[in-house]
Protein 1
Amino acid sequence: MSDFTKVALDAMGGDNAPGEIIKGAVEAVKKRNDIKVLLTGQEELLKKVLSEYTYPEDQIEIVNASEVIETAEPPVMAIRKKKDSSIVVAMNLVKKGEADAFVSAGSSGAVLVGGQVLVGRIPGVERPPLAPLLPTMRGVSLLIDCGANVDARPSHLVQFAKMGSIYMEHIIGKKNPTVGIVNIGAEEEKGNALVKETFPLLKACKDINFIGSVEAREIPYGAADVIVCEAFVGNVILKLYEGVGGALTKKIKAGMMTSLRSKIGALLVKPALKATLKDFDSSEHGGAPLLGLNGLVVKTHGSSTSKEVCNSIVQCVTFKEQRINEKIREVIQFAQEED
Amino acid sequence: MSDFTKVALDAMGGDNAPGEIIKGAVEAVKKRNDIKVLLTGQEELLKKVLSEYTYPEDQIEIVNASEVIETAEPPVMAIRKKKDSSIVVAMNLVKKGEADAFVSAGSSGAVLVGGQVLVGRIPGVERPPLAPLLPTMRGVSLLIDCGANVDARPSHLVQFAKMGSIYMEHIIGKKNPTVGIVNIGAEEEKGNALVKETFPLLKACKDINFIGSVEAREIPYGAADVIVCEAFVGNVILKLYEGVGGALTKKIKAGMMTSLRSKIGALLVKPALKATLKDFDSSEHGGAPLLGLNGLVVKTHGSSTSKEVCNSIVQCVTFKEQRINEKIREVIQFAQEED
């Protein structure tokens, strides 16, 4: 059946591999009959884990890969040396067109390097950004870039804004998404050298809906649909988001256990609290795509459970159906012809 | 009485000026008899507001300043032109030695520029960092720098680490405080150009307790006592901290109002929740000092209420008593002699 979206899945990557990864694959193919998962990893091990499940067997295939890239390994070296690793084997499936997408909860560095070196960039894309969805008070915002592209240039940020707008419009369904640049004040003259140079370029872009600077304080309130920033800043935002949310939740839960009165109250508010915190849980939104590549590469949390793996696999279908890469190619090429 | 700590207070700065500012001054002098507050601002207005309170009258004095610097004004120009503004008049009191410290909830830009131009730097200090305290699961951490020094150099960050360590040890009472640099991974080879250059310099510092990289996710858990970063990143951290905390709290409160069951529960957990959130409220910790100046300059939130103003005034006493500036001078000069 050629209408399958074929997803190569790194069965060896992440804190909970291969158990939760394989469970996520099974959940995905049970949910959707238009997905085929190509599990890469140590065949015997994967077979054994898979045998515990019943699922439509034509929708999961094992592709043997004997090696594993560890999180602590220097990524460039790992991609070059471990040719039979689950990551390299899966990426080569995408490169050869045997898979539409690649999903991994493994080494971020290896996924980012492999994406560029093996899968390759769409012509004209200067740097592929990693773009996770952040939960906000108004839904979600796309944070672009929080990948490996530290010390980016203004032209990179302009491409991030364009690619992010395409993603938000066609994957998330947000018409004419707003674009903001992370800054330390609302005024145009504020910012560091990068932001000051990028601001007028974004303002001059006709194909995005640029609304100016966004202060970090406003991000959780949904200040813009696409939040553009350089990768170091984006990484700080992503991780602090998780950190403050996690710490505060822990503190609130502990606080509720301090007296009998509050314990009883805690029992009563628990279901409501759970629903609230679910809204602010980034694993609900699947993994972060690495945009601008010849194929889709999705990085999910290292701590991913089956739910996040399943969501990440399913999101690949929309990506393919919406022809996101064709749209990126058109916008990037159009900009180059204009220059 | 020469044992007074004399604090010049910008009575016109901030969203709640002059009401909450003056109220904060009154609270401070009622709490401590070793503080004298010099209120700068429009004399008639301040007199009128002050007349509503009873307080030890020899501890508050009004110094007339006819102008006000607005938050939106370009700071360099404002400091230069508005010589009779509450900020410039107060800073000149510090410069002339008539006040030990200056506290303002007004324009951050004007306070940062005025601090450098009017109060002046301690010899050898390259850039004065703004260093607020962040509430964490383990107490507080000093975030240094989140001021106006964007695009900092490695030597600046090294001085931030030293000044921050002195502050944490002698104001907060943390013996041998740990120092971490904000980074996007734990390994030494990770980071942007600035972090990679700064890391070995910090590692080589004998007078600080450097523990390496700190990821943003770990900051709320109290990963290090002194969190060193460049100002743009620091500003993002500070504001996102407030933003995520505020948004999540709002969401949790709204979530608790969704059913009768959770409403009853909310009533029961309310006191415990309030105490918990107070721990994570940065206004409990007063304002942020601008370190490395000939005198103390403290910037409090624009939205400060009397409580934060009062805490900021009181913290000036410890700063003076602990001779923080003498200690900074020694450490900076010692480093220069070593070079």
Protein 2
Amino acid sequence: MKMELEQLLPGEIERRSFEIITEELGERTFPKEQEDIIKRVIHTTADFEYADTMTFSKDAVSSALSALKDRGRTMIVMDTNMTRSGIHRASLEKLGIEAVCYMADPDVAREAKEQGMTRAAVSMNKAARTAEETGKRVIFSVGNAPTALIAIEELIREGRVHPALVIGVPVGFVNVVQAKERIMTADVPYIVAKGRKGGSTVAAAILNALLYKIDTER
Amino acid sequence: MKMELEQLLPGEIERRSFEIITEELGERTFPKEQEDIIKRVIHTTADFEYADTMTFSKDAVSSALSALKDRGRTMIVMDTNMTRSGIHRASLEKLGIEAVCYMADPDVAREAKEQGMTRAAVSMNKAARTAEETGKRVIFSVGNAPTALIAIEELIREGRVHPALVIGVPVGFVNVVQAKERIMTADVPYIVAKGRKGGSTVAAAILNALLYKIDTER
């Protein structure tokens, strides 16, 4: 049993974790702009399967960074309050980015009931309307509800929203694989974890990795 | 490519997901009181590895349920606000359970800096003090910081806190495995996911599974 603790200062633990991840990835390489995102997802999950499943559209990272740097003009729309709690708040504030999750809003619950839709789908419709009304650019982050991802794909096809990025990492057993395959055929920048795995922490890790890229550039 | 969506009502998706999990677990069986907890963790992660790593002390579930049913006398102390966002709020309210996370409290940040400790460790000390002052029973939930789990283990050994349950599912590469092994040698009811994996969503899944047990009993 390995009971001895490594004696590291709090700030050193993350650096050491990334060293271990790099060691264990061995000779595996990734496109430069994707590498820190993939490693941060592995850091968040301790699951190296993401090295195989993380899939980026060609323009995903550049499109996301351009939106995130467009001060005060971009909103991040999430499908869970867990992801919202997990994003690095100071970075958002510094960049003037609004981060919203409409899932628990009473009007969303009411409309979902009336229309026989999921709250996730109604939330995404509300986000598309808000973006249109305010002229804001949108980054969608889906870490839980495949129905949210399906709704976003429909909104894109109907030309009702033009996201700067869709993060598609819902987790689960029903319609999750399909929803991810669908978003990857839409005309939109995407970051997707193929297969069943994903989650709110994975979505937050991807968003944080993008935000940290901007911090590092400065 | 599997693009066809299964046509299910929102309420049916969870039931169908659990059916798939049960099918894929095959002849694998679990102690009755653990089964729904393990399956909910798999549901949350789409990761069957948890069927092997989830480890329960003999009295874990009964001790947790007894505390959760002790109306108004139990607090759940978490190491992330993500887990707090992920717990089923209506169940907590119905049971009169206080759910707290001290990680972002200014006094915790200040004390951590003064003492050269992690905020996680300071948070757990604060929880132990609060429990003593208020006479509340405590369930600890650690989904992120191994230092929180190590601090809890020390508080238990020093007799400063007597938790009704410790959920030990931090995730990561440094001191995570060791922290889990340590808590399993302490004299306390525990639910641990051995190894590196875990996370805020896993902690929330375990807490929700416990809360749903009480809902189902009624």
